[in-house]
Amino acid sequence: MIFPDMRSPRVVKPLIGISCCTKQFGVFGMPNHAASDTYVRATDEVICAVPVLLPANGPAADIETLLDRLDGIILTGSRSNVQPTLYDGPPHAEGTPEDPARDGFTLPLIRAAVARGVPILAICRGFQELNVALGGSLHQRLQDLPDRMDHSTPMQPSSRVRQGKAHAIRVTPGGWLHRLAGTTEIAVNSLHNQGVNQLAPGLTVEGVAPDGTIEAVRVAASQAGPAIGYAVGVQWHPEYDWRTDALSRAIFEQFGAAIRAYADAARLGGVSIAAD
Question: Which of 59, 176, 206, 238 could crosslink 248 through cysteines, CB 3.0-4.6 Å?
């Protein structure tokens, strides 16, 4: 029998928290905490980190303990909408899915993570949470507004149709996304109803759809306080096509670099590096 050499150094992978939703599964509709496998696979295969699912347990969550251990956070997409009471919006239309337990966890998590400089990648609903958590507001149904496109998911059984490129985005010249994409126009998928209304203080616009809908942001260094952090958000879903789309893969790769820089700096008592 050959035993491993216990003297050889073991590579310690960073931990990435992935936000969950509360969903009902099974014949009895039991509540579960769930996140799509696409986020787990991107964490495993692109970032090469350890995914940690974060339950949507509202005020019961011990956020400071989580942030003591996590090296980065992915805020996931979801069918549910952020509660309008959290940004002084009108009530949702009847039947609109909400997830107050998730809102009660993710919004304070975002504020605490930004204050600490913990890297954040916010996607779709997570993008909207980032805006609300930092003081912004949302449109509830973009398709009901004049001069706005329908950004919602096409009701098609084919995932290639549902998740395919839906429209272009004008990328802010010289910004984070421009440097990553190498171009001022990109194509993205589109699977959302809500969108940014009032942009939160401290967020910088990185990309806009043809109808003016904000599609990408980053947290400005001044917003992050003494721990200058990497915190970016995209309204689309790069986790769907990182195997075939170079920019989608690059988003996860750069996030991976940011969490490793944060982990290394934390071990040395330093700070992380901002996206700008």
Answer: 238
Reply yes or no on whether the pLDDT at 226 is more than 70.
Answer: no
Could you tell me what percent of the chain has a pLDDT over 90? 63
* Domain-located, residue 6: no
In a domain, 27, yes or no: yes
The CB-side HSE value for 250 (13 A sphere, CA atoms) comes to: 10
Instruction: Classify each residue of 151-160 as buried b or exposed e, where b means 16 or more C-beta atoms within 10 Å of its C-beta.
Output: bebeeeeeee
CB-facing half-sphere around the CA of 236: CA atoms within 13 A: 27
Task: Say how many CA atoms lie within 13 Å of 158 toward its Cβ.
Answer: 3
Q: Total structural domains in the chain? A: 1
Q: Which domain holds residue 87?
A: 15-268
| CATH number of the domain enclosing 219 | 3.40.50.880
Average pLDDT over residues 198-222: 92
Looking at per-residue pLDDT, the higher value among 155 and 139 belongs to 139
pTM here? 0.89
Give the range among 31-35, 220-224, 247-251 with minimum mean pLDDT: 220-224
Does residue 10 form part of some domain? no
Which amino acids are annotated catalytic? 124, 237, 239
Length of the chain: 276
Give the count of beta carbons closer than 10 Å to the beta carbon of residue 31. 12
